[in-house]
Amino acid sequence: FRALAYIDGGGARLVSKRNVVYRRFADLASHLSLEVDADNAVLDGEIVKLDGTGRPVFLDLMRGRGPFCFVAFDLLAVNGRDVRKQPLVERKEILREIVPKESRCVLYAKHLSQYARELYAAVCEQDLEGIVAKRKDAPYSPGALPHSWINVKNPEYSQGRDRHELFERRVAKRPHGL
């Protein structure tokens, strides 16, 4: 699940792109507050459930089968400083400094500035969902057009099949958020 991690004064909360607090990931939020090396920060990333080989398992995430991880791929603010106007490569450098090198629950999403075709082939071969590509010189601007990022999906991703049905059933069960 895409999420913003708000870390502040020893606590943290994970919030959806629709501004709903993910209450069921409170343990993960607690780990974030302890492991991220900043007094306060806003990180952009995804909540995932990884199997023993490090591959995401979407069905386990949907069913609440933890433990869960937060994969941080961008940074909006750190220690009271808004960094959204800085280029992505600079934000990633700062993010790399505050995300722990060794952690089971907080991971840093590396970036590549070349070998896109090879990476996409590997993503498809390993049955992963896809790649998010961002301009390295772009500021952080969600929702702005034209986008400074694109989502490159693996059309054969096995966990993507019938995914919409899982969401429909979940919404029918719990219409008031997660």
Short description:
The protein has 178 residues and is α+β, with helices and mostly antiparallel strands. The chain has helices at 26-35, 58-62, 88-98, 116-125, 163-173; strands spanning 2-8, 11-15, 40-48, 69-78, 81-82, 106-108, 130-134, 149-153.
Structure characterization notes:
The protein has 178 residues and is α+β, with helices and mostly antiparallel strands. Helix content is 26%, strand content 26%. The protein has five helices and eight strands; from the N terminus they run E-E-H-E-H-E-E-H-E-H-E-E-H. It has helices spanning 26-35, 58-62, 88-98, 116-125, 163-173; strands at residues 2-8, 11-15, 40-48, 69-78, 81-82, 106-108, 130-134, 149-153. Strands 1, 2, 3, 4, 5 and 6 form a six-stranded mixed β-sheet that branches. A hairpin with a 2-residue loop joins strand 4 (69-78) and strand 5. The protein is globular, with a radius of gyration of 16 Å. The protein starts with a strand and ends in a 5-residue tail after the last helix. Mean pLDDT is 85; it is low at 174-178.
